[in-house]
Write a structure and sequence with these properties.
Length: 308
């Protein structure tokens, strides 16, 4: 599993380069959005290229917010998102005449990680994480959170403000979407965050579970204590909700009108048929049968409207 995900993630830079300046054609599909959803979508795209080699599928990762801007502007027909669409984005879609499907494609556990040489911290309470990440936080050193921890500066790594992971984390931990301290190393490329944490003993960062799963030997997983003891993300704790408050669904947004294009319709059908297997392969948790059935019903109804 790790080797497969590594090969797919290695195509990130190539896919991003191909996306720049690339416009859609009758035999081309361009997808952008969440870097968290990216490994699933790229896995699906890779498998789809094998069965439909004449259809070009390119996948970018400008973040959920960046992808939504392109989606609303009509630059792309498919957007991956690590959070639900915002009210402001929904209103912008309405104003632009954009109708869409919201498909739930996997579950993720927002993962907080440490450097493996960190031998003083195994878990944090939600209150400690809030104090660490809130705007204007006074926490600079590890012993600011716990006097038994070393008097060393904490180096923080996390997603940029266009990221749905940033939105989800700040809402779940700080209590307000978008509310975060600004003095941390930010990147929309989760591999940059992985590298930053693994190279600094005093680092702490957060991103989607798949990037931890691929780098288990380079990172230390932090337990999160909401009041019932520390819980770490896993397929079981993410699915049953005990990894709280950092479990979340991942989405694919599809422009309804795009389903009139044969290649888009066929790709989305392929995506839904293979999402469970491929999401698990790259380190995420498949959606429930109920969610999968809901996806199929939404897709079937939209397909009938556009002509099956």
């Amino acid at each position: 599993m790790n080797r497969v995900l590594a090969e797919r993630i290695a195509t990130l830079a190539i896919s991003s380069f191909m996306l720049t300046g690339c416009s859609e054609s009758p035999q081309g599909i361009v997808i952008d959005g969440s870097s968290t959803v990216y490994p699933i979508t790229e896995a699906v795209a890779e498998e789809y290229r094998a069965v439909a080699p004449d259809v070009r599928v390119t996948v970018g990762f400008s973040g959920t917010g960046g992808g939504m801007k392109k989606f609303i502007a009509g630059d792309i027909d498919i957007c991956g998102a690590s959070r639900p669409i915002k009210d402001s984005e929904r209103k912008a879609c309405t104003a632009a005449g954009v109708e869409y499907l919201q498909l739930e494609v996997a579950f993720d556990g927002l993962t907080v990680v440490l450097n493996p040489k960190n031998d003083w911290c195994d878990s944090m309470t939600v209150a400690q994480l809030k104090e660490l990440w809130r705007p204007e936080s006074a926490v600079k050193k590890w012993n600011d959170l716990n006097p038994e921890w070393p008097e060393m500066e904490i180096k923080l790594y996390g997603p940029g403000t266009d990221s749905g992971t940033f939105d989800s984390f700040t809402k779940s931990i700080v209590g307000e979407e978008g509310a975060s301290r600004a003095d941390y190393t930010a990147s929309e490329d989760d591999n940059v965050l992985v590298t930053g944490v693994q190279e600094d003993q005093h680092a702490l960062g957060y991103f989607g579970y798949a990037y931890y799963s691929e780098n288990k030997d380079k990172l230390k997983l932090l337990g999160v204590d909401e009041g019932n003891g520390p819980i770490r993300p896993s397929e079981e704790t993410v699915r049953d909700g005990t990894y709280s408050p950092l479990s979340r669904p991942l989405y694919l947004y599809v422009r309804s009108s795009a389903l009139a294009k044969t290649e888009v319709k066929a790709f989305i059908r392929f995506y839904l048929d293979n999402a469970a297997t491929l999401s698990q392969e790259v380190g995420y948790v498949p959606v429930s049968d109920e969610a999968a059935n809901r996806n199929n019903e939404l897709f079937s109804s939209a397909s009938q409207v556009t002509g099956d």
